[in-house]
Design brief:
77% helix, globular, two-stranded antiparallel sheet, 273 residues, mainly alpha, 1% strand, single chain, 2 strands
Length: 273
């Protein structure tokens, strides 16, 4: 239950961070130019959003120590639902009927995932597996470079969004298999940790460039899909992730419902105040 609570709090933190960052950007933009201290103070909510992002990341890594990837990644993607609800409560925004339905569907999906997921540590992939993850990180960097060099803005945005999804997915996989030795600082020598850092860095940069070159809805939808489906498949096929006996159908329905709801809410991944 502790791990489930952790990933739920991570989703809430990510969703709230989006709102705070949007408010911070709006306030900084409304502050007269030339007053750096005043602009920084006006954007303090953006800094608070970054703190929440960091807290959400730590909580998600902790959750991945004992929960399967298909559950954690789905719940993290559902943070877009948290953003949608907070946009109504904080920004007085309105949800369409489709978005309300998407919230309900994704909520049901999350409950089904929580019921069906089998808790347990990921498989030990050893040093060779860790280096394989680093190699995957290099490939993700290649996808990012290809998207960045593409002169066609639409296709470039799609490629960069895919790179972001792969980077976030790699971060989840690396966190799932990361071994915490005694003493803990020996973790710095593990290639899985390097893959985690590399994947996260490329994902954040790729997502920013993708949003700059394409529409929020499309970019977020591609990123959600890739970062949820790919790690889920990797976890089930190679990392020992499993479903409770007799709950396979429940897990499939929950996964599809959660992902589908997130895709319908994709435009909420970036909020305009």
């Amino acid at each position: 239950m502790f791990a489930i609570a952790g990933v739920v709090l991570a989703a809430i933190a990510y969703g709230a961070a989006t709102i705070l960052q949007a408010i911070g950007v709006q306030r900084m933009g409304a502050t007269p130019e030339g007053r750096l201290v005043t602009r920084l103070w006006a954007g303090r909510s953006y800094a608070a959003g970054l703190v929440l992002d960091a807290a959400g990341f730590v909580l998600s890594v902790v959750a991945l120590r004992s929960l399967p990837l298909f559950m954690v990644e789905s719940m993290l993607a559902s943070s877009v639902g948290v953003t949608a609800v907070l946009a109504v409560l904080v920004l007085r925004d309105r949800l369409s009927a489709r978005e309300v339905a998407a919230l309900v569907v994704s909520g049901i999906g999350l409950v089904l995932l929580a019921i069906s997921a089998h808790e347990g540590p990921g498989s030990d992939i050893g040093a060779a597996g860790g280096w394989l993850l680093v190699g995957c990180g290099v490939l993700v960097c290649g996808v990012f470079a290809a998207g960045l060099a593409d002169r066609r803005s639409a296709r470039s945005a799609y490629t960069l969004a895919a790179a972001a999804g792969l980077g976030f997915g790699l971060t989840g996989v690396a966190a799932r298999v990361l071994v915490l030795p005694d003493p803990w600082w020996h973790t710095a020598g593990q290639p899985a940790l390097w893959a985690l850092v590399l994947g996260g860095a490329v994902a954040i940069v790729s997502y920013g460039f993708a949003l700059n070159r394409g529409g929020t809805t499309t970019v977020a939808a591609i990123t959600f899909a890739v970062e949820t489906v790919v790690p889920a498949a990797v976890g089930l096929l190679w990392l020992g992730d499993s479903v409770r006996d007799g709950f396979a159908a429940v897990a499939v329905v929950g996964f599809v419902a959660t992902l589908g709801g997130c895709l319908l809410l994709a435009r909420r991944a970036e909020i305009e105040v």
